[in-house]
Write a structure and sequence with these properties.
The chain is built from 15 helices and 13 strands. This is Methyltransferase domain-containing protein.
């Protein structure tokens, strides 16, 4: 039927029709239909591990290529279908850097071997960093480390067949699969990376997420992050606290010595300035939602006494605040000269339209630049109005107008 319908309709060239007929015949084969059904059934039953979206956090590293130091890329935990090994290998080739992928399991090693050949090593990550890397690196420092090894067990995967098989695989290598052990291994690797890394080294952790208070992290890199943040690293980007845990990631960067703040001095303020700053909110315009989330994270982590940032209840959060200014979420395209000109034009409009601009510390950001602004200035309050809240406010005003009442205001 598929062949006859295509022949009668006569769409496209003969080559196109031939290809379509070929695929129509192919998809009607029972073996193909059975294979598709088997793949769906085994994934739903937990026999095969599904490829999770959270495993693709490494793609953000493409944007950081221009900021990377000279040095090599390392991946501890070769991919098993997610594509990280191929992605990092190609990124290293484009930027003329060496790349190494390490995995303790035969499966991970074979996958890396087929992807990048001599870049693959079968070993425990911490042992490879301590003994093998110094011998093969030719004194090259680590510019980028992607740590995604020693599997993390989520509560809903405990009884899945693939997770039970992981326990068997780890035991056959003399290892115990547990979340505590995963954090210990990542901590050991982070300590070694810190010794071997470049001045502005980036380290990316997968299956790691911040707590609701943003004061600590959980997942594979929970303990490792505590170490790195206390040894000159800073958070560049991370998943939101309300993000699903298996989609969590944290990206950190080492700060060079002269740019590191003195311990305890970054947020110290004179008592007479405190009250003034509390009444002086921040107006931040961000070119991306991620950099704005980073901005909020710094405020929550370093100044917990401030008015908390929130996208849930704008009016309730800001009603008791003296200045009642807002931080606006701006999504802009900054590609090329036209993008920059558009930003400058919008900045001028914003300055004219927002009457409370003089009362605020003001900054326009591109991508990850808000982290530098956070270090440079002191802040007082932060809140966000997104598109959904704006719509809710309009609906509230319209409803109040219909019944003859007054809409609630800040």
């Amino acid at each position: 039927m598929a062949e006859r319908r295509l022949m009668l309709e006569g769409h496209g060239s003969s080559t196109t029709r031939h290809s379509a007929l070929k695929h129509a015949r192919y998809m009607n084969r029972p073996c193909v239909q059975f294979a598709a059904w088997w793949m769906l059934w085994t994934t739903c039953c937990g026999i095969v591990k599904p490829v999770e979206a959270g495993a693709s956090a490494y793609v953000m590293l493409e944007e950081l290529a221009a900021e990377l130091d000279d040095g090599c890329f390392i991946e501890i935990g070769s991919d098993r279908g997610e594509g990280s090994t191929k992605f990092l290998s190609e990124l290293a080739n484009r930027t003329h850097r060496s790349f190494f992928s390490v995995d303790f399991s035969p499966e991970g090693y074979e996958n890396a071997l087929s992807t990048c050949g001599s870049c693959a090593f079968q070993d425990m990550g911490e042992r490879w960093l301590e003994h093998t890397f110094p011998a093969i690196s030719n004194s090259t420092r680590i510019a980028l480390a992607y740590l995604d090894n020693y599997d993390w067990t989520y509560p809903w995967t405990t009884d899945m067949a693939y997770k039970k098989q992981q326990h068997v695989d780890y035991a056959s290598s003399g290892l115990k699969l547990s979340n505590q052990k995963s954090q210990e291994i990542h901590l050991k690797q982070a300590v070694l990376v810190e010794r071997l890394c470049s001045e502005r080294c980036f380290v990316l952790f997968d299956d790691t997420w911040p707590s609701a208070s943003l004061k600590h992290h959980s997942g594979k890199g929970g303990r490792a992050l505590s170490f790195l943040l206390s040894h000159g690293f800073e958070i560049v980007q991370q998943s939101a606290p309300n993000e699903l845990s298996y989609l969590g990631y944290v990206l950190v960067r080492r700060v060079i010595e002269e740019e590191r703040p003195l311990a305890g001095s970054l947020w110290q303020e004179e008592e007479e300035e405190e009250e003034t700053l509390r009444r002086r909110p921040v107006l931040a315009q961000s070119a991306s939602s991620q950099s704005l989330d980073l901005f909020r994270a710094y405020l929550d982590r370093l100044r917990p006494a401030l008015v908390r940032s929130s996208i849930i209840s704008l009016q309730r959060m800001m009603r008791g605040h003296a200045a009642r200014a807002r931080v606006w979420r701006m999504r802009r395209s900054l590609a090329g000269a036209e993008g920059r000109q558009d930003v400058e034009k919008r900045d001028k409009q914003d300055t004219q339209e927002r009457t409370f601009e003089d009362e605020c510390l003001y900054k326009t950001s591109e991508r990850l630049r808000l982290r530098r602004f956070v270090k440079k200035w002191k802040f007082a309050a932060l809140d966000i109005e997104d598109e959904e809240e704006a719509e809710e406010e309009k609906e509230e005003e319209a409803a109040a107008a219909r019944i003859g009442g007054q809409p609630s205001s800040l």
